[in-house]
Amino acid sequence: MGCSIAGIIDESGKRFSGEEIIRSIKKMFLRANGLGGGFAGYGIYPENKDDFCFHVIYNSEKVKEDTENFLRHDFNILKSEPIPTRSIEEIINRPLLWRYFLKVKQEVRKRFYEMTEEDIVMRSVMKINDASAGAFIISSGKNMGIFKGVGYASDIGRFFRLEEYSGYCWIAHDRFPTNTPGWWGGAHPFGLLNFSLVHNGEISSYGINKRYLEEFGYKLTLRTDSEAILYLFDLLLRKHNLPINIVHKILCPPLWSEIEKMTQKEQDLYRTLRIVYSNALINGPSAIIVSDGKIMFGFSDRIKLRPLVAARKGTKFYLASEECAIQEVCSISSGIHFPKAGEPAIGYLNNK
Amino acid sequence: MIINSKNMTHRMLNEKIRSGVRNGDRKIILKNINGQRYIASGLKSEVNIKINGTAGNDLGSFMSGPKITVYGNAQDCIANTMNAGKIVIHGSVGDVLGYGMRGGKVFVRDDAGYRVGIHMKSYKEMIPIIVIGGSVGDFFAEYMAGGIIILLGLDDTKEIVGDFIGTGMHGGTVYIRGNINKNRLGREVDSVEFDDNDKKIVNEYLTEFCRDFNLNQKNLVNQKFTKFKALNSRPYGTIYAY
Question: pLDDT of A241-292, one tens digit each?
Fold first, then answer.
C-alpha cells in the first residue's frame, strides 16, 4: 500500500509552522520510496495575499528568461526571487526553483473582458506547462504555495525550509510511484489557482477524465493521473460553481445498487448527476485530500481501497493515511474517526 | 522486559523483541508505540506482549504463538496470515483485519474497518477465530474460506455491518448479533439455522471475550444471533478453464 497523504487545518485561521506537517508525513515514510514528496501551505504569504503567486520549476536559465518574457505580456511582476532552499545531500538533480508575485495587467483584463482573472491565470499556466519547454508552474494561487520535488517528503520539507513558513492549512504527500515516472513536476501536491490536491492511488478512469477536461481547456502535461482529479475540482467548483457536496457526489457517486435503494427524489438527483457528469466520475483505488484554502476535504474511493483516518482536537482538524501520523503531532486518546468508503471528512476555515 | 519504543523504527523494535525472546523473556511491555509496523511478525514463541499506543500495520502477521494485548487502536492488515496465538485489542482496528488468517484468535473491543476476515481459511484443527465487539464496514468476510467470525455490534447507535457481506465466500462461518437485511448480503452467502451447537460455539467465545475485556456476559447470553454460510464451496469453479 504505497503513498501517504496528510493534512492539517486550523479552523480558526491561526497559522502554525510547516514543521508540524513534516513530522506528520515523516511518520509514514515506509509508504514512500523517495521518488516524490511535497507540501501545500495556505496563509504563508500574508504580505502579498492579494497577488497571484507562481511557483515555477525550470530546466535551464534560458527557459526561465523565455517564460518571464511570456509572463510579462499578461502580468505585472511585483516580485521575482528564487524559492529559498537549504543544501541537503538527500535532494539531488535540483531544477531552478523560482517564485513570482503577479498581478493581471489592466489592459489584459479589458482585452479578455469575458474572462475572470482566474481564467486568465489558468490560460497562462496551461500555455506554459504545455509548451514542452522545460518550465512548469506548480502552483498559482493567492497566499499559498506548493513545495515539491524528488525525495522523501520530510527531506523535501527540510530542503524548502518549511519550518520557516507559517500557514493555517497544510497538506502533504509522500510518493511511491507505481505506473508514472518520479520527477519534480510529477510529485504531489498538484496545484492550479488556489486548489491543491494529494492523492494515494491510481485512477482507471484517467483516459475519459482527460478527454473531458481537454474540452474545457485543461492541458494534462504532468504525466500522472492525479492531476486530472485536481482539474475536475477546479472545473466543477470554480467554473461550474457547484457546491462541494454535489462535486463530491459527481466524482464519487453512489453505486447503482445503492441508488436503487433510495427514495424517488434522491434517485432522480443521483441518476441525473451520473448521466450529466459521467465523464467526471473518478474510478479506481484512491484516498484524496484537496484544499482551496477555505476547506480541507478528504475522501476515499467508494469501496475503500485506500486508507484515510481523521481526527479533531481544539480548533485543528487532521487527516492522514495512518492514525500514527495524527498521533505524532497531536495525542488523541479517543475520537479517531474512520470515515466510511466515499464519505467526506471536512475541515472548514471559519473566519472567511 | 520493558521497551520504550519512542522514535524507534520497526526494525530496531523487532530486533529488541526477538533478542528478549531469545534470552527467555516471557513478558514484554512496549511503551510509546506509535505506528511501528510488523510488531511480532513471524515470531514463534509463547511470549506475552503488551502494547501501549497505536499499533502499526501488519501487527502479528505470520506469527505463531505470541499473546498480544494492545491498549489503544491498531491500524490496517492486523493478523495478516497469522498462524497461532492471540491478539486482544482494547480499541478499534483499521481495514483488512485477519487477511488470510490461518489460526489463532483476534478479539477487538470496538470497531473494525472494511474487509474483515478476507480470505480467512482453516484446515483440520487450525481454525482462526475473530470476535468484534463493535461494528464493521463493507465486504465483511469477503472471500472467506474457513474459520469463525463473530460480530457483536454492542454499540446500538451504530449500524452493525456494511454492504456486500460474504462476497465470494466459500467456507467458514459468520455469526452476527440480531437480524440482517438480505440486501446487505453478497451473492454467495445466505443465513442458515442457528442451532444448539452454534449457541455453544458462540457462548464459548463470548465468555472468553467478556473475560478479556472485563464485560458483563449476562447482557449477552440470550441474544439472538444469525448464522451465515456460503451457498457453494466453489462459487467460481465454472469460470476457470482446465
Answer: 999 999 999 999 999 989 999 999 999 999 999 999 999 999 999 999 999 9
Q: Which of A25, A27, A260, A304 best tests the B interface by mutation, with the highest count of B CBs <10 A?
A: A304
A169 is catalytic: no
The ipTM value here is 0.94
Can you give the length of chain B in residues?
242
Same-domain status, B162 and B230: yes
Ordered domains of chain A (ranges, CATH): 4-348 (3.60.20.10)
Contact across the interface for B92 and A338, Cβ inside 8 Å:
yes
Cross-chain Cβ contact B95/A28 below 8 Å: no
Expressed as residue numbers, the domain containing B102 is: 92-235
Tell me: do B124 and B216 sit in the same domain: yes
Amino acid in position B233: S
Q: What percent of chain B has pLDDT over 90?
A: 91
Look at residue B242 in the predicted model and tell me its pLDDT: 56
Helices (H) and strands (E) in chain A, counts: 11, 17
Q: Is B163 inside any structural domain?
A: yes
- Angle, helices A264-276 vs A244-251, to 10°: value is 70
CB contact under 8 Å between A324 and B54, yes or no, is yes
Instruction: Tell me if B74 sits within 8 A of B95, measured CB to CB.
Output: no
Q: What is the CATH number of the domain that holds B217?
A: 2.160.20.60
**Among partner residues A30, A307, A341, which is closest to B138 by beta-carbon distance?**
A341
Shared domain for B109 and B22, answered yes or no, is no
